[in-house]
Amino acid sequence: MTVCASPGLSAAHEQEGPPPPPAADEDGGAARAGCAITVDGAYAARLTHSGESWYPERWTLDGPEPYAVPLPGNQPEEPGTEVQPMGDGRVLIRRLVDGRHTFSLLYPTGPGTGELLLGAVESPEGTVLRLLPPAPGGERAYALAAGSRSSAVWLVAGGSFGPELLAEVPGHCSGGVWLDRTGRMLALDRRAGGRTKTVVVDLGDGGAVSPLLQITPGSDDRLLLADPDSGLLLIGSDAASPGRERLGWGVLGSTLPVRFPECLLMSSDCAMTPFAIQPGQVLTPEHCAVALHCQGPFGSWIGVWRPTERGVRHLPAPEGWLAGAGLWTEDGVLRLPYATAAVPCGVARWTAPAAVREQAAPEAARLPGPRAARPATRGAAGPAQGSAQLAQEAQLAQEAQAQRPPRTAQPQRAPRTAPTPQAPQAPQAPHNTPRTPPAAPPRVPLPLSLPLPSSADEVPRPPHAQVPEAEPPASAAARPVPLQQAALTGRMATG
């Protein structure tokens, strides 16, 4: 394989139900989405057409309203051309010309389109080269050249001079998932020895390769999606049912086994592919909302699921949805790009219901009695003034009781006089004073990993919280701990 560099210019009703896991493309990876979106959700790019002429189009998504800018070249593009948005608004394009893969950056220049040629990569026959998903930061772009015996990772945009070969991985690789926010740790699905296992390529350490996912020695395990904030992983594997791939989940760095929920069990005529995970849930991966692209005999729709839930919410896809494309915001809003004749550039929004932990009301708000209705008195005035007020209320209660007429069934008691207050000591409340309800127990944040449930329908309960460690320096990024599972007997979780 050789490289040539040439500088210069040139959203409905919800239903509950089961459907299934990932549809793969011809290279064994996840199916291609209708458009590519930057990690921060600011830009998107797709290849569209007018009649029989294909051209790139850039979408701006971080403004008040989304809008599209066409970027046509001097001649129509081929249908298989790949495009990817960069963080600065330019669009990377990969073209196949005379057996070479050329890379350029496109940008609008008034009525026309500017083009910056980056270079070309020549690949031997039998090698498939494609762009990897947008990298965090948006400053660089990568490509994977997969051959029958080895695969190569290329830096095709953002380098010092043209495409650069970063790593060579033995075996045929597919997929491509970023595991961190710096664009250093890349997960690839490598097929070697007749089995597919996920490995990690450290692009900051000369392309060092280490294993990541190996559920059983004889299973095919692929990483479909990952969230760097929470460590949530979506996995496709046949470990739970040999010969039949199922959708499971785990936590990056955890030694607990991968779980395969029954609600994500695939059927023979359907497919379910995860395409977006809710970010920002640092200590609670089990509360991340996951968007699923569902396909079946009756069309395409969207599923929403959380690891703590026992079912999938099924939503009709918006008209003109760019299938498989979308992203979550941290507050749980799913954004789905779509294009129709009436709305050539639109984004549908759907807000996920709050997780169970967010819906639970504090205990103090549910306690009856007059004391729970006025907690601000003690909190605002301080403990000393609060104690004095409670003593004054107790004294008034004593005086009111002393003025009541005596009961006939009991001997008459002498009326009590009001106690004389003493300066050095605060008056004490009598024993019949109404008791103040206890304060609500503090809420403990959930940890990063989950215990193994004892049954398929049990929702896992987290142990005590763990204090997150300080972030290591960028030059010494920690390598993920492999997700492994011993013998399936007694350890395979299905819910």
Could you name the key traits of this structure?
495 residues, five-stranded antiparallel sheet, 3 helices, mainly beta, disordered N terminus
Task: Give the strand order of the largest sheet, numbering strands 1, 2, ... along the chain.
Answer: 1-10-9-8-7
The span between the termini is 46 Å
**Major pleated sheet:** 5 strands, antiparallel
What's the helix count?
Answer: 3
Give the proportion of residues in helices.
under 10%
Structural class: mainly beta
Q: What characteristic shape results from the CA principal axes?
A: globular
Measured by DSSP, the beta-strand proportion falls in: 35-45%
- Average pLDDT, to the nearest integer? 76
Low-confidence stretches: 1-26, 357-388, 408-415, 417-478, 485-494
Using only C-alpha atoms, the radius of gyration works out to 31 Å
The total beta strand count reads 29
